[in-house]
């Protein structure tokens, strides 16, 4: 058995017409989406950057980028049942991983995956200034309170990633100063030491 034949038989994306040209709709349909994207996108949580990153990895992993990058003419693909089936699965993934309010904002019968993806992304990028203001309020107002130090640091890192993604640069010094300012009082000495070490 040649290498190319062996690859075609083990390739889950192989189609009968051209091995590896299109993902197999049945294989894509069975992808455990909540394992691949373990986040529910919401306006009330700072998780857009992580949600988008998980989906971009998923699209690369399963060779699906042509469904969401605008390079494929949806009207030209309407007769390709396999392509339409994969597109429908992507739309289902998007709907299942967003909050109810986002779902009701973007849902419309007849949309392709590219349109749905673009609408969701637009909700978080079209009004960049409003998003930055919201994230800044969350970031600079973040305090440890009852959370563990690990959970507090992770929360600040998540918010800084969101701000960077929105175009507001959060450097290491700003992240450190915000972290130390929000630590509980009993960690005051640790905060001073952190500033001395990394300042």
Describe this structure in words.
With 199 residues, this protein is an all-alpha fold. It has 2 domains: 23-125, no CATH class; 128-198. The chain is built from 11 helices and no strands. The protein has helices at residues 3-10, 25-29, 33-36, 48-61, 81-96, 100-106, 113-125, 128-140, 149-166, 172-182, 188-198. Helix 8 runs antiparallel to helix 9 and helix 10 runs antiparallel to helix 11. The radius of gyration is 22 Å and the shape is elongated. 19% of the residues are buried. The model is unreliable at 1-20 and 195-199 (pLDDT under 50).
Q: What's the SSE blueprint?
A:
Layout lengths: L2 H8 L14 H5 L3 H4 L11 H14 L19 H16 L3 H7 L6 H13 L2 H13 L8 H18 L5 H11 L5 H11 L1
Which key features would you list for this structure?
single chain; 199 residues; mainly alpha; 11 helices; disordered N terminus; disordered C terminus
User: Could you spell the SSE succession in H and E letters?
Assistant: HHHHHHHHHHH
How does the major sheet shape up?
none
Residue runs with pLDDT of under 50 for 5 or more positions: 1-20, 195-199
Helix content: 55-70%
Mean residue pLDDT: 85
Provide the domain count.
2
């Amino acid at each position: 058995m040649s290498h190319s034949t062996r690859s075609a038989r083990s390739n889950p994306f192989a189609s009968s017409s051209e091995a590896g040209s299109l993902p197999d709709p049945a294989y894509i349909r069975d992808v455990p989406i909540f394992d691949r994207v373990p986040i529910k996108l919401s306006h009330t949580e700072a998780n857009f950057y992580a949600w988008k990153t998980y989906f971009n990895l998923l699209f690369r992993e399963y060779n699906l980028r042509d469904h969401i990058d605008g390079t494929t003419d949806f009207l030209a693909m309407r007769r390709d049942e396999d392509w339409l089936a994969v597109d429908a699965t992507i739309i289902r993934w998007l709907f299942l991983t967003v909050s109810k309010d986002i779902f009701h904002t973007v849902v419309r019968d007849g949309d392709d995956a590219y349109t749905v993806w673009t609408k969701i992304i637009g909700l978080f990028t079209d009004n960049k200034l409003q998003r930055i203001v919201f994230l800044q309020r969350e970031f600079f107002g973040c305090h440890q309170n009852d959370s563990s130090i690990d959970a507090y640091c992770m929360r600040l890192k998540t918010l800084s990633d969101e701000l960077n993604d929105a175009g507001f640069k959060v450097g290491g010094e700003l992240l450190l100063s915000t972290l130390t300012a929000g630590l509980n009082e009993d960690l005051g000495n640790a905060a001073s030491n952190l500033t001395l070490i990394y300042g």
